[in-house]
Amino acid sequence: MRVITAIGAIFAGIEVLYMIMVLAGANAGNAFFQFIKSLAVPLALFFPGLFPVDSPSLAVILDFGLAAVFWLVVTGIIARFAGR
């Protein structure tokens, strides 16, 4: 049960880290940035582009913030059922 919750927290953390790096203007050519992006984009699933907005900052917050919340909620539900 704790393992499932930890996996969800790690996935959400990757999404939040990528979101912070993009909003802070991190160097997109940096190897660490590219590594985090290569993890965060597939984990965002169907959320990127789900809500079309004009502001790029708001788009990043919606796309990756919703994905982070999704991973926390889904893994929390799975952990609850696995614990029974």
TrEMBL record:
It comes from Amycolatopsis melonis. This is YggT family protein. Keywords: Membrane, Transmembrane, Transmembrane helix. The chain crosses the membrane at residues 6-24, 31-51, 57-79. It comes from the Bacteria. The keyword Transmembrane helix applies.
